[in-house]
Design goal:
Elements (H helix, E strand, L loop, with lengths): L1 H20 L4 E4 L2 H7 L2 H11 L6 E2 L2 H21 L12 H7 L1 E3 H4 L1 H20 L2 H4 L20 H19 L5 H6 L1 H7 L7 H23 L4 H27 L20 H8 L3 H25 L2 H4 L4 H8 L12 H31 L3 E2 L2 E2 H24 L1 H4 L3 H5 L2 H12 L3 E5 L9 H4 L7 H7 L13 H4 L6 E5 L8 E5 L2 E5 L2
Length: 517
C-alpha cells in the first residue's frame, strides 16, 4: 500500500511540475494583423508608433512579452498626461488579448493532450495517494497522532511553500492574468465543451481549478471521516453545489444567452449584486433575469433568517458555500492552525462585523448612485471611496489572496472567520434567533482536546464541554468535526426548541446540572 501511495505522489508531482512548466513551453510573437484585430480602431493610431518596435520580435517567456506590451501603452499614456490630453488616456487592458493571440507552441498545438496529462495524471496520482488511507490510517477520524510535528501541518517549510505558491497564484490571477495566459489556454477545451462559442478566461480557469480541488479533496474528506454519515453527506453536498451550481450552471446559462448567475451566491458575499451593470444585465434579460434578481434579494432577506432559525448558519457555510467547500476539503489539513486565543476572538469579532458594516455602507452608496444618477454621496465619490476600495481590499485581497493563501499559516477558515460579511450576517441571526446549538455532556469529557484542536473557527470547544455548556457561538459553522473527533460522544449537533440554548450549568463534582437562566 505504501508503494501505491508513493507512486501516486510521484505522479501528482509530475503533473504539477508539468503544469508549472507551461510557462516555458510557448513563444510569443506580435504581428501587425494581431494588433489591428485586438486593439480598438480609435486606439490604433495612438499606439501604432509605440508598438512598431515589438512587431515581429519573438519572446520565449510571457513576462518580458507582457511587460513590453504594457510598457508601450504606458509610454503613450505618460506622453498624454504630460500634455494633459486626458481624453486620450488608454484604460483598456490589451495585454491579455494580445498575449493570447500571439502565443504559439505546445500549449496551442496540443492543448487537449496537455490538459489530459496534467489533470488526468494529477487526479490518478492524488487518488492513489488518498485511497490507501482506508487501510493504512486505521480507524476513521482524527487521532492525537503528532500532526503538529509535520512540516505541512504546523507552519513548517512545506506549509510555507504551499502558502507562498497559493498567494502568488491569487495575485497573478486577480491582478496580472496576462502572465498566466498559458494556464488560461490550457482549460479552453473544457470551456469549448460547455460552450463551443466561448473562450476560457482567468475566471473560468479559477472556477475549474476550484471545482477540481473540491472534488478530489472531497474524496479525501469522505475517506477520512467515513465513520460519520453527517460528514459524508455534508461533503457530497459542497461537492455538488460547487461543481453543478457554482461552476457548470452559470456557464450553461451563458451558452443559452442568459446572464451568468450563481444561484447559491448572495449579497453581501456577492458584493457586486447591486452594481448598476449587474442590475441592468439582469433586468434587461427578460423573465429569467427578473427571476434571478428577485431570487437574489429573497435569498438574503427571507432565506437567511428562515433557514438559520431552523438549521443554524451551517445550512450555508458548511453545506452550500463555495468558500466553505474549499476550506472543508482542500483546507482540511490546516484546520488545527486556527488561533483559539481570546485575543484572536476579539480581533475576529471586530474585523468580521466591520467588514459587514463596510459592505452595507458600500451597497448604500452604489444603490444611491444607481437610483439618483449622482456619483457623489455626502460629497464623496461613491466609486472612488466605497466601491473600488471594497472590491480591492475585501473582494480580492482579503477573500482571495489572504483567505486561501493563508490556509497553511492561519488555518482553513481565515476568510470565513475574520472577513466574510455573509458569515457575520448569518452568525448574528444564529446567535440570537436559532434552534441550532451544539450540546455537551461535561461528565463524559476526558479533556483530550481533539475538539478544540480541530475547530477551524478558533472556538475552544473543550472549555464549553468541560462545563457542560451549549455552544451557541455566532462564528460556529456547524461543520461537526468537533463531534466527529470526540472519542466519548460528548458533543452533539442539534436543532431543538430555542428554550435552553443559553442555559448555564451548575457544576457538581464531575457532573453538571443545567438550570434555566
Amino acid at each position: 500500500m505504501k508503494a501505491i501511495r508513493y507512486t501516486g505522489l510521484i505522479l501528482f508531482l509530475f503533473s504539477f511540475g508539468l503544469f508549472l512548466s507551461l510557462f516555458f513551453m510557448s513563444s510569443y510573437r506580435l504581428s501587425e494583423d494581431t494588433f489591428a484585430e485586438k486593439v480598438k480602431p480609435e486606439h490604433q493610431a495612438l499606439l501604432k508608433a509605440s508598438f512598431e518596435p515589438l512587431f515581429g520580435q519573438t519572446y520565449h517567456f510571457s513576462i518580458p512579452f507582457v511587460n513590453a506590451i504594457n510598457g508601450a501603452i504606458e509610454t503613450v499614456n505618460d506622453e498624454n498626461r504630460v500634455q494633459q490630453k486626458w481624453d486620450k488616456i488608454i484604460y483598456d487592458d490589451y495585454a491579455g488579448a494580445l498575449t493570447r493571440a500571439s502565443t504559439s507552441g505546445l500549449i496551442t498545438t496540443h492543448t487537449s493532450l496537455l490538459l489530459a496529462l496534467i489533470f488526468g495524471i494529477g487526479t490518478l496520482g492524488a487518488l492513489m495517494f488518498i485511497l490507501p488511507q482506508v487501510t493504512l490510517a486505521g480507524p476513521a477520524g482524527i487521532k492525537n497522532n503528532g500532526i503538529f510535528h509535520h512540516a505541512l501541518n504546523n507552519r513548517g517549510w512545506m506549509g510555507i511553500l504551499i502558502g507562498s505558491l497559493l498567494i502568488l497564484f491569487y495575485i497573478a490571477l486577480y491582478f496580472y492574468p496576462a502572465y498566466v495566459t498559458n494556464w488560461i489556454i490550457l482549460v479552453d477545451p473544457i470551456q469549448k465543451l460547455i460552450n463551443p462559442g466561448g473562450e476560457s478566461s482567468q475566471w473560468f480557469l479559477y472556477g475549474f481549478l476550484y471545482s477540481f480541488a473540491v472534488l478530489v479533496m472531497g474524496i479525501r474528506m469522505i475517506i477520512k471521516y467515513r465513520h460519520s454519515k453527517y460528514q459524508i453527506v455534508r461533503t457530497c453536498s459542497v461537492m455538488f453545489f460547487q461543481l453543478a451550481i457554482a461552476f457548470l450552471l452559470p456557464e450553461i446559462l451563458v451558452r443559452l444567452n442568459q446572464p451568468y448567475f450563481d444561484f447559491k451566491n448572495m449579497w453581501p458575499l456577492d458584493y457586486d449584486f447591486f452594481d448598476a451593470w449587474h442590475i441592468n444585465t439582469l433586468t434587461s434579460a427578460g423573465g429569467l433575469g427578473i427571476f434571478m434578481f428577485a431570487w437574489g434579494i429573497t435569498l438574503f432577506v427571507i432565506g437567511v433568517p428562515v433557514f438559520v432559525f431552523f438549521f443554524g448558519k451551517r445550512w450555508y457555510c458548511s453545506w452550500v458555500c463555495g468558500c466553505g467547500g474549499l476550506a472543508e476539503t482542500a483546507g482540511d489539513s490546516f484546520r488545527q492552525l486556527s488561533d483559539k486565543s481570546l485575543k484572536a476572538w476579539k480581533i475576529e469579532r471586530w474585523l468580521v462585523h466591520g467588514v459587514l458594516v463596510f459592505a452595507v455602507i458600500m451597497t448604500i452608496g452604489v444603490l444611491y448612485t444607481f437610483i439618483t444618477g449622482s456619483n457623489t454621496l455626502l460629497g464623496l465619490d461613491t466609486y472612488t471611496f466605497l466601491r473600488k476600495p471594497y472590491g480591492f481590499a475585501i473582494g480580492s485581497i482579503f477573500s482571495g489572496v489572504i483567505g486561501t493563501g493563508f490556509y497553511p499559516l492561519m488555518g482553513n477558515r481565515v476568510w470565513c472567520r475574520f472577513g466574510c460579511p455573509l458569515a457575520a450576517y448569518l452568525g448574528l441571526v444564529q446567535r440570537f434567533k436559532s434552534k441550532f446549538r451544539i450540546t455537551t455532556n461535561g461528565g463524559q469529557c476526558i479533556s483530550c482536546g481533539n475538539c478544540s484542536t480541530y475547530c477551524e473557527m478558533g472556538i475552544d470547544v473543550r472549555w464549553y464541554a468541560q462545563r457542560g455548556q451549549n455552544i451557541v457561538r455566532s462564528s460556529c459553522v456547524g461543520c461537526g468535526v468537533c463531534s466527529s473527533v470526540c472519542p466519548r460522544g460528548v458533543l452533539n449537533l442539534e436543532n431543538r426548541d430555542e428554550d435552553g440554548r443559553f442555559n448555564e450549568p451548575i457544576l457538581i463534582g464531575n457532573n453538571s446540572l443545567k438550570i434555566k437562566s
